[in-house]
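Dear Dr. H.,

I hope your travels went smoothly. While you were away I took the liberty of generating a structure for the chain from your last submission, since the lab meeting agenda had it listed for discussion. I wanted you to have the full record in hand beforehand rather than looking at slides cold. The sequence, exactly as received, is reproduced here:
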Amino acid sequence: MNKQNTTGCKQVLTEISKTRDVFTELEDFFRKADENISNDPDDPREGIGRFPGLDRLMFLIPCVINRLEEDISKSKEGENVASIIEGLQAIKEGIHSVLTYYLQDDVEGAINLLSNALSKIDKLCSKKSQSGIRVFRDIARIAPDFQIILDMFEGFRENRRIRPKEPEINTSWSPECWLDYYREQARLEEPLIAMVDAEGLSEASLEKGMKRMMEESEQRDKMMEKRFISYKLMRSRDAIFSPEHPERFLDLSEIPDIKDEEDDDDYEVRAIDLRYEEEEEEPPEPWASSLPELRDWNKITHESSFDDSELCRQDFEDDPVYLLLNPFAHNLFECLKQDDLRRVEKGRREENELRSPLEHYLIILALKAQARISSCGVWAENVGHEAPRKGVYLFAMECMERIAEAVERFSPEYLYHLATEARNIKKQIEKILTENV
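The corresponding predicted structure, in token form, is as follows:
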């Protein structure tokens, strides 16, 4: 081996050492986290868990590094040194992305690091070694697991985007502070509400809010499609991977897809992250373009609320404000449905035409207030006082006033009674608040 090859070999070995150090840091983090959990009698978890994809990389990355060392020791040519170093740096960035998420709780930073790493890997995948060095093929084989993690990070980012920062449980927030929290939550979740708040109630703001709502719905559909692809990719790789023999996985020429007949409901992802993002499947949004019957939504709320707090399982049907909101929401939906049928019969609307921005706005407000009632008891129990519940009641009053104003300004006269009903409910909620002071 000539002097130039020797220098290149030393550079690669130095980069291997740096990559191994970063991987050891990740291993140490998980080991300490698992030890802390096992030593905490109040923590029910068996361990911190690993992301799907990452659980496999914890076996594959050391194998990739070891194989590279082995190949370099046998090779007499120092070829592709720069590319090999770039590949190792991409692996390091991938590992750093996971550490950034866990240690700094920085989803955006993790996404940037991992996106950059995958971009480098994409460029390296076309390279081939003439001297039997397997690193480019090995990196291409582990790249999909990094992609699975990236898809998960992007889901976390979207999840956080539509949620305000949760209040500190030990903070003595007033009902008005909780009202601000619920307002912000509604703005982040609902483009229609955000647009009306920003520009005032008008036909133009409703149209713009509806347009943004449809755009975000399309983005969610695309994200769900990506998640489905990641899920299938995860299953295929899980089926063929053995932790006892990671080198066999790297040597595969291709990963076979799981056939449809092998799909079943018993499959579970082998490892999940138990520390931050335990996402539950959310019920379908009742303000989607094809609105389901309210009885279906009400059935779902027994099992899950639209709120992001944990343990939203409490019985809320006896809440006095919920008892006011629930029949009103039914009545509002039925009136809008009958109005819709009336316009279809008169030829003013196509049968399968999307519901109007105003209809969406009214139903969002009615259901948003109702859904918040279903989970405020959890917050009240956590903070030890009734401010969260009173904040929800104030939020419900605002929703009723918004409905009344929108109906009076934009609905036909035969629907004006909905405005009257909304304001009557607002007065009754105000009375309930006064009696509970």
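Two observations you may find useful: The first helix runs from residue 3 to 38. The two ends are 86 Å apart (CA to CA).

With kind regards,
E. W.
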